[in-house]
Amino acid sequence: xxxxxxxxxxxxxxxxxxxxxxxxxxxxxxxxxxxxxxxxxxxxxxxxxxxxxxxxxxxxxxxxxxxxxxxxxxxxxxxxxxxxxxxxxxxxxxxxxxxxxxxxxxxxxxxxxxxxxxxxxxxxxxxxxxxxxxxxxxxxxxxxxxxxxxxxxxxxxxxxxxxxxxxxxxxxxxxxxxxxxxxxxxxxxx
Length: 190
Ligand code: 5GP
Fold this sequence. Notes:
alpha/beta, Rossmann fold, two-stranded antiparallel sheet, 6 helices
């Protein structure tokens, strides 16, 4: 998505630790018009998939997931992060290493919200090493749901998570793929 690449170049800030800050339009302040353009683009990429739910993880995945789900016209389910390993109640859960917080979280979804009748699209804001998507895939599998694929606003392609998912056979649709990133500049995949 050319307009996303341009916005990243204009507004993105490269931080230490391989983190791209996009707080001006996606992660803190949200540019609603642009968010819904991204959601529309994701919905179009999966238009033929008969998706029944969009699945994401709190907190920063929720906005883009809502925008995509709006155009697909299905509910969003978001996994909550619980720091304890003791999970109570009827939930699906997976252990996920957080890229930005450098801790492990148990992510949980109540069994009420996903079932074998669902076909889910997994959506997040960033794809780096792929741990968040892998955890969400694990949850969808526990529910017996079909997985239509993965959609993300920004994939940092050089970190390999997206290509691992593709190698496992998942359809991964990224609105922008960064192949090189440093304080000196950002290069996108052609
Ligand atoms: P992964 O699990 O693929 O290694 O990392 C993806 C998760 O970490 C996303 O949910 C996202 O919130 C966060 N993340 C990874 N890289 C970045 C980044 O460069 N910038 C921001 N803002 N978040 C990131």
